[in-house]
Amino acid sequence: MGQPIRGTLVESYLRARGIGDLRCLPALRFHPRCFHRTIENGPCETWPALLAAVTDRDGTITGLHRTWLARDGTDKAPLATPRRAMGQLLGNGVRFGEPADVL
Questions:
Q1: Which of 27, 62, 93, 103 has its CA 20 to 30 A from that of 85?
Q2: How confident is the prediction for the chain on average, in pLDDT?
Q3: Residue spans of the chain under pLDDT 70
Q4: Domain membership flag for residue 103
Q5: What contacts 10, CB < 8 A, 6 or more positions away?
Q6: Residue of 19, 25, 74, 77 lying closest to 48 (CA atoms)
Q7: Would you say 53 and 27 are in contact if contact means Cβ atoms under 8 Å apart?
Q8: What residue numbers bound the domain in which 36 lies?
Q9: What was the pLDDT predicted at 102?
Q10: Does residue 39 form part of some domain?
Q11: Is residue 90 part of a domain?
């Protein structure tokens, strides 16, 4: 359900953090209503989120990093844990740039 980041709150968030060149960031996506649960079995909330694909060296997605954003995109969401990752992360990472540049 992730969407390209162009024209979204992710673009606003990254620009506010000083990241202006957003041309080659295929690993990043935007989700307008990503679920967040503060405590196990607690109620779910939805917040806009920056999604980042975690991949191995061959480009296979092994996990996902989520950063929930403030509703205006100026900062992280006012949550106790606005960043979480899931999946197989050890030895893998979020890769930026052209695939040939990453290896």
A1: 103
A2: 88
A3: 98-103
A4: no
A5: 28, 29, 30, 48, 50, 69, 73
A6: 77
A7: yes
A8: 9-95
A9: 43
A10: yes
A11: yes
Rounded CA gap, 63 and 14, in Å?
21
Residue 3 lies in a domain: no
Q: What does the pLDDT read at residue 101?
A: 46
CA distances from 86 to 7, 16, 22, 56, 92 (A): 26, 26, 24, 14, 12
Residue among 56, 51, 53 nearest 90 (CA): 56
Q: At a CB cut-off of 8 Å and minimum separation 6, what does 49 contact? A: 30, 31, 34, 36, 66, 67, 68, 69
Q: Give the integer Cα–Cα distance in Å for 83 and 67.
A: 4
What is the count of structural domains for the chain?
1
* d(C-alpha 36, C-alpha 50), whole Å: 13
Q: Residue 54 has which token pair?
A: 């975690």
According to the 3-state scheme, what is the secondary structure of the chain?
A: CCECCCCCHHHHHHHHCCCCCCCCCCCEEEEEEEEEECCCCCCEEEEEEEEEEEECCCCCEEEEEEEEECCCCCCECCCCCCEEEEECCCCCECCCCCHHHHC
